[in-house]
Amino acid sequence: QVQLVESGGGLVQAGGSLRLSCAASGRTFSSYTMGWFRQTPGKEREFVALIRWSDDTYYTDSVKGRFTISRDNAKNTVYLQMNSLKPEDTAVYYCNAGECWGQGTQVTVSS
Fold first, then answer.
1. How many CB atoms sit inside 10 A of residue 4's CB?
2. 3-state secondary structure 2-18
3. pLDDT for 31-87, tens place per residue?
4. What are residue 36's DSSP bridge partners?
5. Which of 44, 49, 51, 67 has the fewest CB atoms lying closer than 10 Å?
């Protein structure tokens, strides 16, 4: 089991940037595929980005070119750098590792 704690959410104007962090417990962090998902009220949780142990990355189309996922295995942390934010990026963002989820962090983008 991995425990995940997100941070870095907040309120930002459209066009601004935020960096989310997800700190993970556990000695096998480097072997996990780590992902970010997001959810808005009344909608299903949706995939945003993931990074494999090999550092291969994948993004949903709506964030390509704006978001960057990265990991620091020495710090057991995965990041989501979000640039050129849009109001439609407003959501609770969740960190994921296999069947484990963090508690979520709110991102609000004002127009």
1. 22
2. CCEEEECCEEEECCCCE
3. 889 999 999 999 999 999 999 999 999 999 999 999 999 999 999 999 999 999 999
4. 49, 95
5. 44
